[in-house]
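Quick one, tokens below. Sequence please?
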């Protein structure tokens, strides 16, 4: 296992587990006065992280999450963040209501991508997840190969696509899940995109950079997708966690399921206990430097690790109190 630091959003700020030179783990909690909604790390500078908050804009860390400073968008509800792997200092932020912003200077100043307001049929977007039902940008996915290709997922709204850096946008991509929960590009292959979501599918994937999508249902016991991840070496190998519905997915007794797909094969159950599992794998993370490595962060704060594509697992020796959607592994 290569990871030495885990940072997660919780119901009360952030939890950070770090490993010292003696391989001992220590867990610290911070930002207890902040309602942190999302996290993103800078692929060009591993020490730099960003956090989106409920009403206090964006925070930035220069030291792998040990300390945080406000860096812009005060008053905004920031629900998703993504940092460019191509342009140093370029950060994208999705908000509630559903608008999209970009910063070119490490988050100091922000500009709204006004074309996002002109997406066809965006008046239809409505999220029952949070009162009063305003739609929000749940996920932003940046192509690893094309700096102008951006995808955005709306909670109970759409998956939309831009090929000009966010100036103009398509409508919903047919076959993608309108109730988007997780949306990611493959680490290095810009053709492969993966989604976990609701609206009857559970999981969907694209092999042409998000132009066309195919729902992958065969083998899934339930169809409310929560998280997904993909192997960094083999893009045809990917993972998804599902539940019967939102009440189970985010409740104390989740009735969770965890699956692996490989190429043309259907979903195969994996995990450390029989299905359904008690706690939801709300975050799935792979290591771009270690094929086959997979981390699963649970709603109860535990983190499980597999070094062999999910065949066998070990529980890591710390607890993050309760993971809520975002988990960063460094």
């Amino acid at each position: 296992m290569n990871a030495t630091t885990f940072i997660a959003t919780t119901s009360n700020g952030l939890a950070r587990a770090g490993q010292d030179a003696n391989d001992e783990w220590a867990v610290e909690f911070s930002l207890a006065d902040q309602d942190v909604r999302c996290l993103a790390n800078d692929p060009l500078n591993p020490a730099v992280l960003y956090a989106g908050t409920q009403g206090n804009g964006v925070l930035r860390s220069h030291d792998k999450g040990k300390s945080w400073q406000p860096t812009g968008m005060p008053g905004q509800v920031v629900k998703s963040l993504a940092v460019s792997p191509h342009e140093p200092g370029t950060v994208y932020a999705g908000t509630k209501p559903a608008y999209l912003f970009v910063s070119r200077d490490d988050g100091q100043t922000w500009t709204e991508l006004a074309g996002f307001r002109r997406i066809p049929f965006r008046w239809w977007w409505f999220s029952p997840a949070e009162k009063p039902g305003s739609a929000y940008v749940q996920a932003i996915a940046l192509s690893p190969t094309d700096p102008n290709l951006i995808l955005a997922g709306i909670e109970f709204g759409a998956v939309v696509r831009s090929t000009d850096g966010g100036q103009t946008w398509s409508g919903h991509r047919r076959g993608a899940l309108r109730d988007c929960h997780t949306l990611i590009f493959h680490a290095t292959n810009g053709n492969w995109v993966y989604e976990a979501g609701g609206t009857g599918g559970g999981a969907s994937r694209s092999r042409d950079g998000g132009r066309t999508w195919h729902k992958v249902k065969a083998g899934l016991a339930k169809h409310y997708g929560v998280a997904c991840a993909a192997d960094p070496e083999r893009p045809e190998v990917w993972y998804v966690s599902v539940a019967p519905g939102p009440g189970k997915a985010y409740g104390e007794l989740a009735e969770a399921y965890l699956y692996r797909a490989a190429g043309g094969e259907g979903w195969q159950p994996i995990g450390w206990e029989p299905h359904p599992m008690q706690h939801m794998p709300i975050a799935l993370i792979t290591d771009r430097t270690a094929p086959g490595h997979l981390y699963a962060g649970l709603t109860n704060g535990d983190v499980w690790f597999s070094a062999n594509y999910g065949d066998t697992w070990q529980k890591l020796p710390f607890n993050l109190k309760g993971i809520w959607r975002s988990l960063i592994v460094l």
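The mean pLDDT is 95. The radius of gyration is 18 Å.
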